[in-house]
């Protein structure tokens, strides 16, 4: 919990009624978390500056063996774990 809390983007600066803003907030959270957890990997948030339209939001590259992991982030305001907006 403390580890994740250190990665949290500022919720108060985000318009929680805007689906796009909620999605970007979630991507930023995951990006910051992965940077912290995998500091030896190259972590790229592909939508950081503009929407890339890629099938993933974060690309992780392990410099030790060159393996690549693609991460798709889904964020919702709903308490329903099966609901995505």
Question: Notable features of this structure?
Answer:
14% strand; three-stranded antiparallel beta sheet; 85 residues
Helices and strands in order:
Elements: H1 2-5, H2 19-37, E1 42-45, E2 58-61, E3 68-71
Antiparallel strand pairs: 1-2, 2-3
Give a brief rundown of this model.
27% of the residues lie in helices and 14% in strands. It has helices spanning 2-5, 19-37; strands at residues 42-45, 58-61, 68-71.
Descriptive notes:
A 3-stranded antiparallel β-sheet has the order 1-2-3, with helices on one face. The chain has helices at 2-5, 19-37; strands at 42-45, 58-61, 68-71. It has 85 residues and is of the alpha+beta class. It is built from 2 helices and 3 strands, in the order ααβββ.
Number of DSSP helical runs? 2
Instruction: Note the beta-strand portion.
Output: 5-15%
Task: Please state how the strands of the largest beta sheet are arranged side by side.
Answer: 1-2-3
Oligomer: single chain
Question: What is the CA-CA span between the terminal residues?
Answer: 25 Å
Please tell me what the overall shape is.
Answer: globular
List segments where confidence is low: pLDDT < 50 over at least 5 consecutive residues: none
| Classification by helices and strands | alpha+beta
Number of strands: 3
Largest sheet composition: 3 strands, antiparallel
Could you tell me the mean pLDDT?
Answer: 84
Measured as a percent range, the helix fraction is 25-40%
Q: Give me the strand/helix succession.
A: HHEEE
Our Rg estimate from Cα atoms comes to: 14 Å
